[in-house]
């Protein structure tokens, strides 16, 4: 396996063979508990489906249970010293795409932000896993019922993440501050071959996923991260427009826009004025 290119694993069955878990009963969805045979160490691998898991008795976690999430082709790796307990749901990309009410942003958080469960939350999530597993193991399980269990679990998880965002302020304040520092200095540090700032760019710089960054910034500021990016673009453009040293088109290119009319459209949307009217006022 090339350490620079994580192994791609196609399908739930292939992944279960790799980790030494029970074979799935269905190609689209798999629900199970972690067996003692589950491998304890793995280099980065990229399953092509979603994984949702709860793990108990992990080392160095003070007895707290954690939930982890990964999305298709997102690298995951682990290295634990002893077997752990827990449950998992594995579900294909097509299922999530076809049932859009299941498309929660935390599904793409990856290993960057596990959910630390309080005891009451752990009881709620564990019971849903048990109920879903009981249905999955029945001879004629209902796919609709399994997806309903997923939907119920995801709604709880979304609520629990809000609690976590509010509690772990020191960590999150640092991330939020780092984001705004990167945003405020973006054009100063990208003078050559500048491109428009994107959510993906900042997420990569902060080593988190775009959805995680978006949810974090929205929770702490009340505004989407893209709105903050657009406001920074407009503030920078206003200074350039006021200087009267550049045409509107030149400013658009300096800000990373491939087409000046896209910049003009954004400027008017945010300010209510065209760039030329602002420059000439």
- Tell the overall outline: elongated
In terms of structural class, how would the helical and strand content be classed? alpha+beta
Series of H and E elements: EHEEEEEEHEHHHHHHHHHH
Major beta-sheet overview: 5 strands, antiparallel
| Low-confidence blocks of residues | none
Mean pLDDT: 92
Q: Major sheet: order of its strands?
A: 2-7-4-5-8
Number of helices: 12
Q: Tell me, what is the CATH class of the largest domain? A: Mainly Beta
Q: Compute the number of structural domains.
A: 2
Total strands: the figure is 8
Query: What's the Cα radius of gyration?
Result: 23 Å
Strand content: 15-25%
Residue share in helix: 40-55%
Q: Tell me the distance between the termini.
A: 62 Å
CATH architecture of the largest domain: Sandwich
What name does the CATH topology of the largest domain carry? Answer: Jelly Rolls
Protein name: HTH araC/xylS-type domain-containing protein
Pfam families: HTH_18
InterPro entries: Homeodomain-like_sf, HTH_AraC, HTH_AraC-typ_CS, Tscrpt_reg_AraC-type_HTH
GO molecular function: DNA-binding transcription factor activity; sequence-specific DNA binding
Account of the protein in words:
GO terms for molecular function: DNA-binding transcription factor activity; sequence-specific DNA binding. Residues 181-281 form the HTH araC/xylS-type domain. InterPro entries: Homeodomain-like_sf, HTH_AraC, HTH_AraC-typ_CS, Tscrpt_reg_AraC-type_HTH. This is HTH araC/xylS-type domain-containing protein. Keywords: DNA-binding, Transcription, Transcription regulation. The protein has 281 residues and is of the alpha+beta class. The chain folds into two domains: 7-160, Jelly Rolls (Sandwich); 171-280, Homeodomain-like (Arc Repressor Mutant, subunit A). It is built from twelve helices and eight strands. The strands form two sheets. Strands 2-7-4-5-8 form a five-stranded antiparallel sheet. A three-stranded mixed sheet has the order 1-3-6. Helix 7 crosses helix 8 (210-221). The longest helix has 25 residues, at 143-167. The radius of gyration is 23 Å and the shape is elongated. The protein starts with 6 loop residues before the first strand and ends with a helix. The relative contact order is 0.09. The model has no long low-confidence stretch (mean pLDDT 92).
């Amino acid at each position: 396996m090339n350490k620079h290119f994580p192994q791609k694993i196609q399908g739930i069955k292939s992944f279960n063979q790799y980790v030494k878990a029970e074979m799935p009963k269905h190609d689209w969805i798999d629900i199970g508990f972690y067996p003692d045979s589950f491998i304890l160490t793995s280099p980065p691998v990229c399953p092509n489906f979603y994984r949702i898991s709860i793990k108990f008795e992990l080392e160095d976690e003070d007895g707290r249970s954690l939930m982890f999430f990964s999305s298709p082709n997102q690298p995951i790796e682990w290295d634990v010293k002893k077997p752990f307990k827990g449950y998992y749901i594995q579900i294909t990309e097509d299922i999530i795409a076809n049932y859009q009410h299941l498309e929660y942003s935390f599904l793409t958080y990856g290993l960057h932000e596990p959910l630390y469960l309080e005891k009451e939350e752990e009881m709620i999530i564990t019971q849903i896993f048990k109920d879903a597993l009981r249905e999955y193991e029945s001879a004629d399980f209902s796919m609709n019922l399994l997806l309903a269990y997923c939907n119920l679990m995801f709604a709880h998880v979304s609520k629990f993440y809000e609690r976590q965002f509010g509690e772990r302020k020191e960590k999150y304040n640092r991330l939020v501050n780092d984001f705004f520092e990167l945003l405020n200095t973006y054009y100063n540090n990208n003078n050559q071959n500048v491109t428009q700032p994107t959510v993906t760019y900042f997420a990569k710089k902060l080593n988190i996923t775009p959805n995680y960054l978006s949810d974090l910034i929205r929770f702490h500021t009340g505004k989407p991260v893209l709105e903050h990016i657009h406001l920074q673009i407009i503030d920078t453009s206003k200074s350039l427009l006021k200087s009267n040293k550049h045409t509107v088109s030149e400013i658009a290119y300096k800000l990373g826009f491939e087409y000046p009319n896209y910049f003009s459209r954004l400027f008017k949307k945010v300010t209510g004025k065209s760039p030329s009217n602002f420059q000439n006022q």
